[in-house]
Backbone:
């Protein structure tokens, strides 16, 4: 009875290793994005690390968890945003991307939350200035070439199917942990 589980376990571990290897490659970003900073940090389970954004203009925050699961909360009304008090958020099991509009009042508060499912979470956040946005006479950003400003194509997100895939991975890993606890 344990033989089928071992095969499934090996297949799952191989798939997860392949996914991590593809995620480790440098992501492609548009030429209009200028890298301003790279921030690395660590946050404990259920805790926050706070950062402050002073750069003007349209900013893209691209964070990935190196270990654990860190989530991103952004606000222009508080320097200590949380999952209860924020304007923008990205709380996925994969790369987290938030676009901070140019009209947000500076400084902008950034909260990195360590998900309780991991004792510690380690993250890397890249801060980009998006120069593709042009000022519209009425104050709304317009995009050249008719682009809609979507970040989905840039970081490989596939809309709802990407979220469903993340949920599927979370469920599969939880089941795997349960099976391993029962077997060992």
Residues:
């Amino acid at each position: 009875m344990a033989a089928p589980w071992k095969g499934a376990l090996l297949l799952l571990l191989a798939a997860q290793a392949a996914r991590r290897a593809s995620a480790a490659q440098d992501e492609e970003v548009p030429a209009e994005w200028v890298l301003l900073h790279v921030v690395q940090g660590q946050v404990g389970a259920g805790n926050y690390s706070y950062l402050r954004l002073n750069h003007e203009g349209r900013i893209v925050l691209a964070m990935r968890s190196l270990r654990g699961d860190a989530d991103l909360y952004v606000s222009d009304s508080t320097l200590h945003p949380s999952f209860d008090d924020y304007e923008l958020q990205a709380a996925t099991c994969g790369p987290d991307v938030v676009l901070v509009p140019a009209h947000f009042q500076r400084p902008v508060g950034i909260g990195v939350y360590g998900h309780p499912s991991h004792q510690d979470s380690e993250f890397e956040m890249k801060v980009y200035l998006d120069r593709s946005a042009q000022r519209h006479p009425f104050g709304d950003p317009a995009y050249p070439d008719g682009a809609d400003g979507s970040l989905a194509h840039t970081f490989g997100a596939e809309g709802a199917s990407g979220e469903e895939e993340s949920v599927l991975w979370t469920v599969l890993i939880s089941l795997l942990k349960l099976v391993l606890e029962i077997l060992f």
